[in-house]
Amino acid sequence: xxxxxxxxxxxxxxxxxxxxxxxxxxxxxxxxxxxxxxxxxxxxxxxxxxxxxxxxxxxxxxxxxxxxxxxxxxxxxxxxxxxxxxxxxxxxxxxxxxxxxxxxxxxxxxxxxxxxxxxxxxxxxxxxxxxxxxxxxxxxxxxxxxxxxxxxxxxxxxxxxxxxxxxxxxxxxxxxxxxxxxxxxxxxxxxxxxxxxxxxxxxxxxxxxxxxxxxxxxxxxxxxxxxxxxxxxxxxxxxxxxxxxxxxxxxxxxxxxxxxxxxxxxxxxxxxxxxxxxxxxxxxxxxx
Length: 288
Hints:
74% of the residues lie in helices and 3% in strands. It is mainly alpha-helical and 288 residues long. It has a two-stranded antiparallel ribbon. β1 (100-103) and β2 (106-109) form a beta hairpin. The longest helix is centred in the last third of the chain and has 35 residues, at 249-283. The radius of gyration is 21 Å and the shape is globular. It starts with a helix and ends in a 5-residue tail after the last helix. The model has no long low-confidence stretch (mean pLDDT 81).
C-alpha cells in the first residue's frame, strides 16, 4: 500500500473512531449538553463568589495584578488542561486493554480488535485523545471567556500571550511524561481500575500546593517544598505572570528553563518505563 493510500485509510479510520467517541458521549445530545453547560456556569459562579468573599487584596497577589478572581479563574481553567495531560496516556491504555467490544459474536478488547482488523493502534489512540482533548479545550475556553465577560476577570493590557503559551506547552508536555509513568503502573502494579498511585499523588498535591486556588507562598514550609517539585507550580506561575502581571519572556526565562528540564527528564524516562511495562505485560501473556 502506497504512503498516500495508507494516510487516506488512517484518516478515514481516525474519523470513524472520533464519531464513535462523540456518539458514545452525546448519543442523546439534547439531553446531556444543556446539563454540561449549566454545570460549567454554576461551577464558574461558585468560584467567582468564593473569590469575592475571601479573596481580598493580599500582597501575595500583587505580582499577578492584585485581582484574586482573575487569579482563581485562570488557575481553575488551566488546571482542566493539566488534568487532561496527567490522565491522557493512562486513559488510552486502560481504554484499549480493558474496554470490550463485540466482534463476530465474540467479546474482545479494543487492542485485540485493532490487531485483528489490522488497524494501527496509534490511529485509535490519536482519535481518542483528540476527542478528550477537544472537550477539555472547550471547557477551558468556556472558563476563560465566562471569566472575562460574565465575571469581570481582567487581563493585563500588556499581557504576554506568547510567554503564557510557551509556559503552557512546556508544562503540558512535562505532564504527559508523568502520564506515561502513570500508564506503566497498569502492568507493573495492576492499576486497572481508574486509580493508580502516581497520578493520584500528583493530582492530590497539585490541587493543594501548586497554586491552582491560592499562591503557594501561603503554605507551610513542608508543603511549599512539595510544590517546588511539581511542574504545575512553575507553569501556573509563569502563565499568571505573563497574562496578569505582563511579564516579558526574559523575566519568565527562569520558569521556561525549569519546565524545559522537566520535559527533558520526564518524557524520555516516562517513555522508557512505559515501554518496559509493555515487555512485562508480554512476559505475563497479558498483552498481544
